[in-house]
Structure formats: structure tokens, C-alpha cells
Amino acid sequence: MRELAQLLKGNTDVLILSLLESEPMYGYQVIKELEQRSDGFFQLGEGTLYPALHRLERAKLVRGRWRKLDGGQERRYYSLTQEGENRLQEQTNAWARFASAVNLIIKPA
After folding, report:
1. What domains can you pick out in the chain, each with its CATH number?
2. Whole-model pTM?
């Protein structure tokens, strides 16, 4: 299981960027969506998510904006910037090449 945690650690940013590609989300929504889309495989804690979101925001890959809810509460929604979209495309292409190369080795024709 430790190996899986290392894989997640190295791919947290691309997973978050991928989720935000479809729509702006608030933190807890990102956690739940990641868990749901991965059939429970990825379970990201707040202690991992929020530092990642802040890092992505500092890098100008995502933008956070406060939205007031009907009950008066506020939530911070994150969305991709143009730089974030470009980075996601680069990382998606790199992942596809990497996965293809790994498959050539572990599943030879």
C-alpha cells in the first residue's frame, strides 16, 4: 500500500487539475469527486488536498474565488486558469507516453 501512496503523491496535482477541468469545485467536493470517480481507490485527505490547492494557486494553475451560498456561508471554489489547462494537457500527454512505455515492458506483445 505504501507504493500506492507514493504514486498518489506524485500525481496529486494532475488529478486535481483533471477534476477542475470539468467545473469549478470547492475542496470537499474535490475529495468526494476523486473518491467517486476512482471507485474509492483514491482517498485524499484535507491535509494533502489544501496544500496542493494552495501550491497550484501560487503557481497560477488554479484560481480560487469565494462564493456566498444561500445560507450566508462562503465556500472557496477553484477553477483552472489557462496556464492550468496548458499544464494539464502537458501532463496528460506525458502520462500517456509513460503508461504506454510501461505497458510495453510489463505486457509485451
Report:
1. 2-99 (1.10.10.10)
2. 0.86
